[in-house]
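Structure first, sequence second, as always.
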């Protein structure tokens, strides 16, 4: 009898623990890749579970889609681009339903890529040339800001609208002079037989424009109704994010375990290409996830000068710093 009671007691504890888990639907900004392997590392090591969270991680199709998923309530959290979030705030007056609470890229990893034989050396060399891109990507929407910083007329560039997966092919074939994207675009060229040393990389940062990149966005409903869950998720994510940077081998292996179709070598390279946008001289002082209000305010001005906004949001509306762990826990290892 005592044995049966003991077993029932254990089962009751297990059932209670399971019931106590808060379900979180989390959307990535893109496919399962090296730079977001922290999600799988955190799950594998039980960090989210330890915070009482049952996290479902799904692949995404871009920042705009991630924002829409959270806005409609289909997802609780997701990764998305800061500029896209600013545009969302500016054009959804009174209907904004999410905030960013943790920054992934201290420097947006944005650049334009051309074949080195074209002679391109800077963004200024894009003047009068055709550039491939989708209508919604940040390197196209924000181009007027980057062009003005490079002292060229933004309207001198002719945009070649194309599927994002075909942008490098358009450059190789000569249908476009260059294409824009993350620092990982060289991997697309390499997959098509173009060596990295044969590419010219025209970084946005080189023209003196600093903009934040992607980060963790959370629904305002969850922030209001269950701030403890948000706090726990950010704490677990920060823990896994730091370890992804210091234990990249384990992080990429966690990704491979989740999606066996991913290739270790490619995803490790993808993470390493994006590492400089995460580990900057600033994050080594102010910690991961942090946003400087003045820098974000400048970015809001950049976005408002590039796309038409109904209203201009404030930095405090867009980014909520109240869930950030203490600085000691956010400093890169």
């Amino acid at each position: 009898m005592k044995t049966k009671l003991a077993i029932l007691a254990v089962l009751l504890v297990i059932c209670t623990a399971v019931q106590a888990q808060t379900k979180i639907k989390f959307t990535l900004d893109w496919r399962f890749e090296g730079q977001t392997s922290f999600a799988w590392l955190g799950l594998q090591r039980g960090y989210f579970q330890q915070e009482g969270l049952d996290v479902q991680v799904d692949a995404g199709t871009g920042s705009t889609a991630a924002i829409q998923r959270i806005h409609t309530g289909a997802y609780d959290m997701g990764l998305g681009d800061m500029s896209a979030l600013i545009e969302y705030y500016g054009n959804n007056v009174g209907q904004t339903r999410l905030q960013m609470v943790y920054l992934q890229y201290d420097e947006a990893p944005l650049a334009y890529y051309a074949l080195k034989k074209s002679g391109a050396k800077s963004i200024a060399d894009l003047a009068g040339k055709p550039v491939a891109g989708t209508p919604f990507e940040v390197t196209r929407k924000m181009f007027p800001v980057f062009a003005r910083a490079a002292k060229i007329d933004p309207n001198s560039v002719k945009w070649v609208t194309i599927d994002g997966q075909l942008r490098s092919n358009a450059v190789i074939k000569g249908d476009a002079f260059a294409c824009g994207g993350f620092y990982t675009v060289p991997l697309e060229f390499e997959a098509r037989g173009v060596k990295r040393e044969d590419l010219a990389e025209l970084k946005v940062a080189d023209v003196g424009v600093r903009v934040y990149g992607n980060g963790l966005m959370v629904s305002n409903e969850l922030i209001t109704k269950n701030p403890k869950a948000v706090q726990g998720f950010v704490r677990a994510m920060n823990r896994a994010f730091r370890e992804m940077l210091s234990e990249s081998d384990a992080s990429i292996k966690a990704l491979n375990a989740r999606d066996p179709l991913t290739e270790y070598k490619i995803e490790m390279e993808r993470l390493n290409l994006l590492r400089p946008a995460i580990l900057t001289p600033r994050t080594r002082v102010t910690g991961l996830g942090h946003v400087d209000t003045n820098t974000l305010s400048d970015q809001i001005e950049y976005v408002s000068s590039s796309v038409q906004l109904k209203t201009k949001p404030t930095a405090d509306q867009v980014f909520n710093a109240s869930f950030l762990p203490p600085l000691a826990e956010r400093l890169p290892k």
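Margin note: Residues 67 and 206 are 29 Å apart (CA to CA).
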